[in-house]
Amino acid sequence: MKIVIAGAGAVGTHLAKMLTEGFHDITIIDDDEERLSRTGETIDVLTVNGNPGSIEVLRAAGVSDADLFVSVIPSDDQSINIICALLAKKLGAKKVTARISNDEYLRDENKIMFTEMGVDLLFYPEKIAVDEILKLLQRSEMTDFIDFANGRLQIVVLRLTEGAPILDKTFEETWSVGESLKYRTVAISRDGRTIIPKRDTIFKEGDLIYVMARRDAVPDVMAFAGKEKNSSVKRLTIVGGGKIGGMLAQRFEGSANFVKLIELDKARCDELVHRLDKTLVINGDGRNSDLLYEEDVKDCDAFVAVTSSSETNILACVAAKNMGIEKTIAQVENLEYIRLAEDMGVDSVINKKIITAGRIFRFTLSSKVRTVKVLNGSEAEVLEYIVNPNSAVTKAPIKELEFPKDAVIGGVIRGSETIVADGNTQIHPYDRVSVFALPTAIKQVDNLFS
After folding, report:
1. CB 313, CB 240: distance < 8 Å
2. Are 48 and 28 in contact (CB under 8 A)?
3. Within a domain: residue 220?
């Protein structure tokens, strides 16, 4: 697939790196020569130095015969991305998508207008991040999770800590039993590596486990991982009053008993006071442990740090964890810091680049892919397919297919039936199938479902 990316900023560079693993033909456009040079040195892509809003530059980048055009220019005025996407579509790009920073554009009545103009997808990374944080606050005992078919099937992500009943047991020993499989560990993240478990794989303290489970089996999964279900979050502290922090406070106010927001910039605090109805806005440094103690942060159910500094967010969450707060969430934009944050005890990590890349990545796969989510803590993606009647995956039970070793079919939705898959499972046409795959296996997986 030929893909043109406008913008060699953090999101564009991460997306290009992710897409090169799928053997796509990638070109990146940027008018910042230094930024473009850094990207070209680390990723095998073609680079075009110039203004992405220039028709001449877009033509030079080969937009006319591009399968996908992605505009993620790191500009204060995000409307440039829409302009570039519209130009690319007019020049011949088959699909175009643009990053935005205006929630108004995502209203249903307005999305239709952009679709009619030719933009296939608009995405607002900060809003996507807020959506992810709210989901994590609803299930505070989990590190991450994914719902399929309105929650009938779920991937539950949990950190194994001291005392977990499954520690030192093999994968086979934790296999659920009964008339049908209720849950199954589909992957383990350990020491920066993602492992697709075999029957003799042993669970160790510190492992991050990814478990495919039927909805009715989630309590069993929590029990074998040694997790008690926490009560819902009603008292929340947020550090950082930028776009994400402000939006999060505003959306959480309706379901919360109490929301406290700490922001260092006095002028921004004044803005937030007028925008937020039920949130206590405090002008201060969220890294200051004394301030956190003075403000009784320890009495909150959860603590979220979303400043523009990854280091500040990690340190603030560590301080909150030491005070006894059960759930901590940090925005960590430096990819190399994600594992550090997890090792330091941060419960969940949010990264806009990873979330956004997952949304766009779906456009590079077959039309039968409904959703893609890139998981924090692993290199893997979770994909949900609608099975083509003629696809190779329907020809035999899973154990007889040449399914790549770096991928696993986790679950199947078939009408009213919910199935956690094993080697004997036969995939049928029109099944909704969830797949956990490492980047090296995605192309093979997609071919099996095409």
Report:
1. yes
2. yes
3. no
